Amino acid sequence: MLAYHARTKHRLERYAAGPETLDWDAQPDPFRRFAGAPATLLPLPGDGDDTPWSRIFAPGAVAPRWPSRDSVGLLFELSFALSAWKQSGPDRWALRCTPSSGNLHPTEAYLLTRGVADLEDGLHHYAPREHALELRARTARPDGKVGAQAPRLLVGLSSIHWREAWKYGERAFRYCQLDIGHAIGALRYAAAVLGWRVQAQPLGHAAIARLLGLDRAGDFTGAEREEAEALFELRYAPDEPASKEDLLAWIADAAWSGRASRIDARPMYRWPVIDEVALASRRDTHAAVPSLLPLAARHLPPDTDKAAAALIRLRRSAQQFDRRARLDAERFWPIAAALMPATVDAAGAPLPWDVWTAPVRVHAVLFPHRIDGLAPGAYLLPREASAHLALRAALPQLAWRRVEAAPPEVPLYEMAATPTLAGTLRTLSCHQAIGADAIFVVALLAEFHPAIDGEPWRYRELLREAGLVGQVLYLEAEAAGLRGTGIGCYFDDSVHALLGLAGNPPSRWQVVYHFSVGLPLIDPRITTEAPYDRYARQEATRP
């Protein structure tokens, strides 16, 4: 893991190994289908859902909805569905509720269902272009009747590495894991609108691959394989004890259908190190299913009356920021507080952090450019109390002044005041203007040791945790009337040098993601269209 991470660092003198040229007309297909698998169109109830954004953060404020085709439709509409079509001249492309590096979308989503009215029992692949479920495996109900057992729903995630590697080369595995973190966040927020909880199912890699049909080599003949990533149960009745049923036995006698489509018929490059790092970072053993964390209320609720469904579907990645825009510190504190995975009184975890059961090992270095009440410079937000001492020991040369104006929920420390930092951040973020023109930038710093010592699969966890932080920033920015952009391209060790980490063991603390937030400038040449044409959806699902 450490060798891969070092190998795929961007440096001022050279970028990580990637393609020398890109033909955007030959981009990998962002939409996988399974030929021969029956497709079921899902409803699109998002327009009529007015659940307030602020309400989903209050425990018990949203009554859980019964699992149905309608509620499943809303779950996917607010997590993995298209949010709009964009067009500029002859170019037309789709946006989704879940963001992705380069808008390439390596993440595939699956649904395991049983006992849900109007949905077949079994494994479904989600087709976002049509907003439909493709039945990959049909399982039999024990007595053949709907309602014989309580409904059960699980969502599985996988990655198609080639979608990212086509553009980003060897660094693509990092981006796939960041995208999984974003997807976990998108799933959690969507479930919250339904009043549901999300519970991780920490199965080994082989078991998840089996459940999602990804180990069926014959179904992927001539097509790119998918890497099994994660599995989550949707808890619509969280007070009920978790099922102890063997999921593999549930799907053991399934009747399978469908063959995976090819997404790139003529790939120009191969990056074998991606398969190597994927193999080395797989989790081979099962772990006990963790108990649901108590869901805690946010002490600094978002100040918005927007409907959650509308806000989620309006999430975009900003392409350009207004460099004159400013933000008052009082509007900044709720955004910063949303990054904290625990409440001040430790009574529980606020949304979406109740889904994250792994140790907290990713921390935020904040670079405010234009926040009134917060001087430009570098600040550290330790997201877990014990990390404060470890970070302070790694960076003893810095000021470490507690920001007295910050609320108790935001343990923010000023490390250095630097009024001219914006230009430096532009350079360190691969010379991208969004690093300088944003209102503030976040660098996410992960503790590699002792995290992955003896447990290399935790490398995926570090990147996913960073991606989940990024999803929080995306939606908090939208709620505040701003916009965010994830930055996966930065000069790793140059950022470490800026922070003063260059003299430390190089594998202890590593920057794994950058993120910028500002006021977006909208390009009037780009037009926006609705995500779904219902007639086109019906045509696309014909056998």
What does this structure look like?
The protein has helices at residues 2-7, 69-77, 161-168, 172-193, 205-211, 247-250, 272-280, 308-313, 329-337, 387-394, 421-428, 434-437, 458-479, 492-499, 534-540, and strands at residues 34-35, 39-41, 82-88, 91-96, 107-114, 122-127, 132-138, 152-159, 197-200, 227-235, 255-256, 259-260, 295-296, 327-328, 349-350, 362-368, 371-372, 377-381, 401-402, 413-417, 440-447, 483-487, 509-518, 527-529. Strands 2, 5, 6, 7, 8, 9, 10 and 11 form an eight-stranded antiparallel β-sheet that branches. Strands 19-20-18-16-21-23-22 form a seven-stranded antiparallel β-sheet, sandwiched between helices. Strand 6 (122-127) and strand 7 (132-138) form a beta hairpin. The model has no long low-confidence stretch (mean pLDDT 93). Helices cover 25% and strands 22% of the residues. The protein has two domains: 22-283, NADH Oxidase (3-Layer(aba) Sandwich), CATH 3.40.109; 317-518, NADH Oxidase (3-Layer(aba) Sandwich), CATH 3.40.109.10.
